Every structure is written in C-alpha cells, then in structure tokens.
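BUG-137 | component: ligand-complex export | severity: low

The export step for cytidine-5'-diphosphate jobs runs without errors, but we want the raw record kept on the ticket for reference. Input record follows.
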Amino acid sequence: MSSLEQTLSIIKPDAYERNLSEKIKAIFIKNNLSILKSKKLHISKDEAAEFYKVHQSKPFYDQLCNYLSSGPIEVLILEGDNAVSKNRELMGATDPKNAKDGTIRHLYGISIDKNSVHGSDSVENAKIEINFFFKIS
Ligand code: CDP
Ligand code: MG
C-alpha cells in the first residue's frame, strides 16, 4: 500500500564538506522524492544533543553530537509515496561497509559515524524531526 509521507533528511558534515549535496539531492529526485524545503545550517552541540536524545544512553552519543555540530549541514523535507522507508532504502545501512551497492552510504559514506546522511526512521519521528528543524506543526 502506498501513502503520501514526509520525512527528514540531513546531509551530514562529511558529505556537505565534500560538496555532495547536489548529487545526493539528485538521487532523491530521481527516485520520486520531492524536496519540499531545504536549508543549510550549522547547529550547536546542544542542538545536536537535543536532536539525537533518543541515543543519549549509547556509548557513541557524545561523539555523535560533536560530529553533527562540527560543520555545516543541509536539512531537507522529502515528500513522496512511502517517503520514510524509501529514504531509508536509498540511504543504505548505518555502517557504509554493510550498505548495498548504489545506496547513498555505499557511494559516499566514509565510516559508521561519517555516514553522509540521516533519515527519519518512522512517520512519527519524521514529524518530530521536521518540526525540530523547520518549526512547523
Ligand atoms: O542513522 P541510522 O538511523 O542508520 O542509525 P542510528 O542507529 O539511528 O544511529 C544514529 C547515528 O549514530 C548513525 O547514523 C551513526 O552516524 C552514529 N552511530 C555511530 O557513530 N556508531 C554506532 N555504533 C552507531 C551509530
Ligand atoms: Mg536513526
């Protein structure tokens, strides 16, 4: 069954600094995810900590927050049929070593932390994450 959804994508600092934003956005568009809104920003460590608070008990949390706040990023609202799962498929596995051929993380990811993109993992979290970055309800 298809349902029209929105999801949040982040082009993380490692991809942004290698000027991969346009290439990554072209992958979304080619796969029928439209970019409703986008913005470039450089968040603080406190903002990264708030965004990633579901991971606060994980051993990699502090490093993850340092990393996401280490440089400019681009945040995107993607919209399309089954956008949440489609974006996750296009991203590939968290660790680029395990990401399938042709996925964004396979193409561009450097390591499990510098894995180029974030994508919401559920419709509910997509709403929370879109609201976090775009302050819309
Ligand atoms: O991003 P994704 O949803 O695929 O993975 P996650 O389990 O929600 O973890 C969030 C982010 O934490 C990942 O994208 C990695 O950048 C980072 N991470 C890490 O640095 N080391 C790990 N062992 C697991 C995740
Ligand atoms: Mg996740």
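Assignee comment: Attached the raw record above. The pocket of cytidine-5'-diphosphate (ligand 1) is lined by residues 55, 60, 64, 94, 112-113, 115, 118, 121 (CB under 6 Å).
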